[in-house]
Amino acid sequence: MKLTFWGAARQVTGSMYLLELEDDYKILVDCGTDLDRQKSTNKDKVTVAYSIFPFEPSDIDVVLLTHAHIDHSGNLPNLIREGYEGQILCTAPTLPLAHLLLQDSAALNHRLLKQLHNGNGHGKRRSKKKPKINPAELFLEKQVNETVEQFVTIAFNQKFKLTKGVSVTFIPTGHLLGAANIVIEVEENGQKKTIGFSGDLGRKNYPLLQDPHPFPEVDYLICESTYGNRRHKATGTPEEALSAIIQQACIDIPGRLIIPAFSVGRTQALLYTLNKLYTDHNFPPIKVFSDSPMAYQSTKVYQKFIKYLNKEAQEFYEENEELFDFENLIYVEKMKDSKAISNYNEPCIIISSSGMVQGGRVEHHVMTNISNPYATILMIGYAAEGTLGRKLLEGMRSIRLKNNDELPVLANIQSTDVFSGHGDRDDLTRFVKYQQPDKLRKIFLVHGEYKSMTDFHAHLIQEGYSQVEIPTWGQSYQL
């Protein structure tokens, strides 16, 4: 069989791996959007015969989706539009979360298409800056609805037959509600081979989510490496970390705390932790604005799939009847209400997307408060290079506006990784160590910045794993 890496190769996003069996049965694992949008020379050298994909989508027999995040699911509507007619297998919670995220992408695409249309001489002056987006990639709600019709959900930890001699098992990995690591078992030419895909590895003791389950021994392992060269710094619990920051930002000083957070996953962890602070620790009531319509919808999905959450969350729900709703919490849906938060003069907490401060309503809150010394901006997750979130973390002193005015950064910029949904180097090492070095034929490192991959590669060599590869985009291996 042949394994080809069509995404997340020497970069973080765009997960997409094609497994081709001897009888020409083709399995696509994940079909994510390339958010990095850095087209390497390797990509340029590959002859792409189709408008988006470097393979014929109609030739794919089945798609396996590890979890809902856009860098793993975001190209599925394009795959369907280009001719894929098969099933998309995932866990039950992944379906509604992926639906929400894809709908959000379609709405963004609709706005981008209007901008491209207006920028080409239809009512507005032609833009001098060429868009980095290929219009052919911009699917709309119609394609999303068609995509969701092809989803089929399967249970965790139950072997599911794909075709004769081929089966798949989804194994809980934390990280996000419904997220899975995947094991594919293939029997061909009288030999049995197993291939493991890590998806995105979660971490232990994360709010709401189950710990990653043990992973079976496989012949080949595809392993993400987002945090392959670093450990999480936070040592306390999420409640302790958040409590200390709120005390400093909203109580000791009557200011406002702005938390950029992804709408699906991170916001639910924050709201649950705040609920626990208010319910179990008699925390003083402070107004909390959850400013993201998609966060509100995804919170309802979490509420629906309580049985998939960890034991602590289930027990908290049984005792309090609410996981996320508490006094002084306001869900903000309309844009005018979002902007009106600026007029609220009491200490408050604003949770809004996106987590990297790149697009979304949080940009307004950050820009409105960036020169306010009584404001605190708390970064709680990964921020990609070039995003405003990363620049703030790196200590930028001012923000230049479109009219060339500059706003000084006077707000207090803080960060914590206690809410990071990715496992760190120790978690990744623990995941790999389910495999015996003398039996594992090869490890492929994906889904990480190249420095993270090379450092984790060196670490695994020291741990006794000699067969470690860092594939390039489009590189194939015979398994």
TrEMBL record:
It is an enzyme of class 3 (hydrolase). InterPro entries: Beta_Casp (IPR022712), MBL (IPR050698), Metallo-B-lactamas (IPR001279), RibonucZ/Hydroxyglut_hydro (IPR036866), RMMBL (IPR011108). Gene3D superfamilies: 3.40.50.10890, Ribonuclease Z/Hydroxyacylglutathione hydrolase-like. Signal peptide: none annotated. Pfam families: Beta-Casp, Lactamase_B, RMMBL. Keywords: Hydrolase. Residues 13-262 form the Metallo-beta-lactamase domain. The keyword Transit peptide does not apply. Its EC number is 3.-.-.-. Residues 267-392 form the Beta-Casp domain. CDD domains: TTHA0252-CPSF-like_MBL-fold. One of its GO terms (molecular function) is hydrolase activity. The keyword Hydrolase applies. This is MBL fold metallo-hydrolase. It comes from Rhodocytophaga aerolata. The lineage of its organism: Bacteria, Pseudomonadati, Bacteroidota, Cytophagia, Cytophagales.
